[in-house]
Design goal:
Strand content: under 5%
Helix content: over 70%
Number of helices: 3
Radius of gyration: 16 Å
Order of helices and strands: HHH
Largest sheet: none
Number of strands: 0
């Protein structure tokens, strides 16, 4: 089976853009949630996701997979913490 090394950079570039788009949508939704509820954690998560998305679109986050993964994990943990803090038993 032959590999085509010419297409690998293009696929990598496209995957970075898909990840950027997938961070942009929840970031905007978090900012929308912040404008409705006034919860500061929504604003923090939205800003983190939007900054990560912009960094990917500009190419700043290229070759920094750990930073992108950390941003995604931290924002997920903050959203789970926010969800659990709102649940009343």
């Amino acid at each position: 089976m032959r590999r085509d090394p010419g297409l690998q950079p293009e696929r990598t570039h496209l995957s970075w853009h898909r990840t950027g788009w997938s961070m942009l949508a929840p970031g905007l939704l978090c900012l929308r949630g912040w404008s409705h509820s006034g919860n500061a954690l929504y604003a923090l998560v939205g800003i983190l996701l939007l900054s990560g998305s912009i960094a990917m679109f500009c190419g700043i986050a290229k070759q920094r997979h750990n930073v992108v993964s950390l941003i995604i994990v931290v924002t997920g943990a903050l959203l789970i913490f926010m969800l659990l803090s709102q649940i009343t038993i």
